[in-house]
Amino acid sequence: MSKKICLYDTTLRDGTQAEGISLSVEDKVKIAARLDQFGIDWIEGGWPGSNPKDMAFFEKMKEFPLKQAKIAAFGSTCRPGVAAEVDSNLQAILDSGAAVATIFGKSWDLHVLEALKTSLEENLRMVRDSISYLKQHQRTVIFDAEHFFDGFKQNADYAVSVLKAAEEAGADWIVLCDTNGGSLPHEVYQIVQTVRQQIATPLGIHSHNDGELGVANALAAVQAGAEQVQGTINGIGERCGNANLISVVANLQLKMGYSCVAEEQLQQLTKLSRYVAEIANMATPNNQPFVGNSAFAHKGGIHVSAVLKDPQTYEHIAPEQVGNRRRVLVSELAGQSNLLAKSEELQISFDGNKQEAREMIQQIKEREFQGYQYEGAEASLSLLLLESSGKLNPLFSLDSFKILMEKTAEHAILSEATVKVRVNGQIMHTAAEGNGPVNALDNALRKALEGVFPVLSQMHLTDYKVRVLDESEATAAKVRVLIESMRNGEKWSTVGVSTNVIEASWEALVDSIRYLLWKEGCTPQELEEQTEQRVGIVNH
Ligand SMILES: CC(=O)SCCNC(=O)CCNC(=O)[C@H](O)C(C)(C)COP(=O)(O)OP(=O)(O)OC[C@H]1O[C@@H](n2cnc3c(N)ncnc32)[C@H](O)[C@@H]1OP(=O)(O)O
Ligand SMILES: CC(=O)C(=O)O
Q1: How confident is the model at residue 411 (pLDDT cuts 50, 70, 90)?
Q2: 326 and 192 in one domain?
Q3: pLDDT value for 49
Q4: Most-buried pick from 286, 294, 417, 484 (CB within 10 A)?
Q5: 492 C-beta closer than 6 A to ligand 1
Q6: What is the pTM of this model?
Q7: How much is the pLDDT for 389?
Q8: Ligand 1 atom 19: the closest Cα is on which residue?
């Protein structure tokens, strides 16, 4: 049986020390429930002595008993010259009601002398008394030896004497912290091994990511004997963040043969990462290992050709093991393999042969040279494939559009668009206002088409991005517009390119509508019936 490594999540405490992250009590409760479901062993809820919100979280958690995880309250040792029994911070930890108390204490002499401005002996007393006091109150005590690795490098005897004080006072776990995040994996490995020979209490690791080694250092510590890893979901935390528990769990379990969570939970890793990112209102990088959108996205033609033969050729694990999925991108770097795989993924029966696929790829490369980008606009790519294989019915076409804008001293700027589109031989002529020219154009186009295609009333635009393609051309530069649309929770993206931003937007808007109509299977025959009825209604 593989050895169990315990997971200690500090997203709700160290994670909220990240710049730009602030979680409400309700957010914290939701994340705690999800971490519990995933199989995290300890969830550090916050610092009760720090602020009312953290205290409220511990109160709230009394109403939401977790299935298996334990909630830990965090704080420091007592202050210099203050007895543990009267220290307000320790009292707040006890008042939180959490069964687990995690306290950090100084283990680097520099910090004792310069930050605490006290003696080395008094610091040992603070560690000893604080832990004994919490143990007297039947708490499980986790001692975080702050700055342990830097302290050990400077004064190993003192750093270890702090751990011994914690052990003698009854700490249940001793966690070695790379607080400044500057240690290297081989240093962490050697130091943890040395400590292992002198301390019997189970060890943990808490590493920061300042040298981009938070995960590597956590893994090195485990190899050297640590049995608990502290970290945060998506690696959020003070400065450059903490060890990313997402990558820690995946590596420990899939690469190193340790056991952290049940296998079926591991398949929830991608969802967990995205859930926490959503609640924390943070954008996760596409290239985030294991769970990122691009973690198993293949772009180069050589890669795709090989992956289709055997995924191991360019994938270190199967994406499904962590709940992610393989994606094939089509771009100027693609070969015919990308195109054939993509058409299969998009469920478009592109029944051309290899030569036709190569010609199609040349067409895509030419359009990318003009400024189009299809890897971010798969709906436009689908339309291109359908069109070139003669499977796309031209359900409507543009006769003309006009846009007027008016700004007066009294009123905000107003945009009005008029469009003439031809649907089944009939001209639909409509006008609509909007809060900007693209919005007005979108409204007018839908007004013209919704009567014939009622499904369009259910779609809306969710994102609009403009990129200037060659800034040196100034106003004559081309722009690329990417539009994201949504219907019933399903999203799709389209692209338009022109030297005129309105024309590029029109192209992307039209594609977004054409894509939905194709998905809905609207055919010219249905269209004929619908337009006849509509003309009937109009003539009545
Ligand atoms: C490594 C880590 O990430 S530890 C966690 C860091 N997280 C936070 O700091 C977030 C929460 N912090 C807070 O809300 C506030 O800083 C509080 C409530 C804890 C303290 O606030 P204040 O009393 O105003 O003190 P302030 O924040 O200015 O300074 C921290 C004090 O703690 C002392 N301190 C630092 N580490 C320890 C320790 N391990 N044990 C005891 N005291 C400590 C410092 O010496 C300093 O004391 P001083 O004011 O006598 O110089
Ligand atoms: C305890 C902690 O957060 C640290 O040492 O980084």
Answers
A1: confident
A2: no
A3: 87
A4: 417
A5: no
A6: 0.87
A7: 80
A8: 50
CA geometry: angle at 94 spanning 89 and 98, to 5°?
Answer: 120
360 and 247 part of one domain: no
Q: According to the model, what pLDDT value does residue 538 have? A: 40
Q: How confident is the model at residue 474 (pLDDT cuts 50, 70, 90)?
A: low
Residue ending a domain, choose from 235, 261, 287? 261
Nearest CA to ligand 1 atom 47: 116
Is-contact 219 251, C-beta < 8 A?
yes
The residue whose CA has the least distance to atom 6 of ligand 2 is 179
In a domain, 454, yes or no: no
Instruction: Indicate if 255 and 315 belong to the same structural domain.
Output: no
The atom of ligand 2 lying closest to the CA of 10 is 3
pLDDT for residue 347: 76
User: Ligand 1: distance of its center to the CA of 125 in Å?
Assistant: 18
**Average pLDDT of the segment spanning 104-108:** 98
Q: Write down the residue that tokens 């001692």 correspond to.
A: 143
Q: Which of 55, 76, 119 to mutate to test the pocket of ligand 1 (most atoms within 8 A of CB)?
A: 76
pLDDT digits over 325-349, tens only? 999 999 999 999 998 888 888 777 7
- 346 C-alpha vs ligand 1 centroid, how far in Å? 55
End-to-end CA distance of the chain: 79
Residue 322 shares a structural domain with residue 255: no
Alpha-carbon distance 438 to 502, whole Å? Answer: 7
Whether the Cβ atoms of residue 131 and residue 103 lie closer than 8 Å to each other: yes
Query: 242 and 347: one domain?
Result: no
Domains of the chain: total? 2
Whether residue 14 is found in the same domain as residue 139:
yes
Ligand 2 atom closest to Cα of residue 144 = 1
Q: Does the residue 491 lie in any domain? A: no
The ligand that comes nearest to the alpha carbon of residue 106 is 1
Same domain, 191 and 330: no
Domain span including residue 210:
6-261
Give residue 28's region: left, alpha or beta (phi > 0; psi -120 to 50): alpha
